[in-house]
Amino acid sequence: MKVLLLVVAALVAISPAYAADIDDKIAAALSAESRPEAHRSRDRNRKPLETLKFFGLKDDMRVLELIPGGGWYTRVLAPVLAENGKLYVSLGAGRLKSGLLTEPGFDAVTVVDDDANMRRESGARYYTMDAIDLDVDDMDMVLTFRNVHNFDASGRAGMHAAAFAALKSGGVYGVVDHSKRHMEPETPENRRRVDPVQAIKEIQAAGFEFVDYSTLHYRADDELEYEVGRKSVTGNTDRFTFLFRKP
């Protein structure tokens, strides 16, 4: 019993140090001189430090970012994971391959090629993608930020299935997206919003367990009425922040 108490005490003592270490590494990435001012200007709204801590990021993880876009989060994740972990990006990562990943300090990021054939069919409202196999299955964490809303039901199912297959058992899936009113019919104003309840159900259908949610990106003054690009809500949209686990 005495040995057990000593171990517990040691773990308690280590925890604050670990938290400070992750805080410091994320803060250093956010303050890097190479980080564009346009990225910095969104920190207050996107709260990357708090968001990544909520998802449980550790610097020794193998992390896969899906649909990284121009690399806003990639610029934060890559330096945090550079020493002890590993960052992978996939789905629509071509822009990064010819851009950010050619810059010093980002050459260790691995692009997981895919043939998902993301596309928007003629006359379609949303993008879709084919069933995909990313050929990785040992990730500790998969993340995607404000991307689910771009896809139809088939495309969303493909994305969540790819995330599930890429994770090891116990791995986590973090999802952030713009909130839509529950069960609200589609309108020209809500195309880039997602029903949070529907999102949970679809991700659970891919095999995930729902773990937790955060109100980090809750915005009471977003009436959920307008397109996310409108001046009244752009940069201040209400977003759900969900954490799932692969059993």
What's the SSE blueprint?
Elements: H1 2-30, H2 37-40, H3 43-46, H4 48-55, E1 62-66, H5 74-81, E2 86-90, H6 94-97, E3 110-112, E4 139-145, H7 153-166, E5 167-178, H8 196-205, E6 209-214, E7 239-245
Parallel strand pairs: 1-2, 1-4, 2-3, 4-5
Antiparallel strand pairs: 5-7, 6-7
Give an account of the 3D structure.
With 247 residues, the chain is of the alpha/beta class. It has one domain (2-245): 3-Layer(aba) Sandwich (Rossmann fold). Helices cover 33% and strands 18% of the residues. It has helices at 2-30, 37-40, 43-46, 48-55, 74-81, 94-97, 153-166, 196-205, and strands at residues 62-66, 86-90, 110-112, 139-145, 167-178, 209-214, 239-245. A seven-stranded mixed β-sheet has the order 3-2-1-4-5-7-6. Helix 6 (94-97) links the parallel strand 2 and strand 3. Helix 1 (2-30) packs across helix 5. The radius of gyration is 19 Å and the shape is globular.
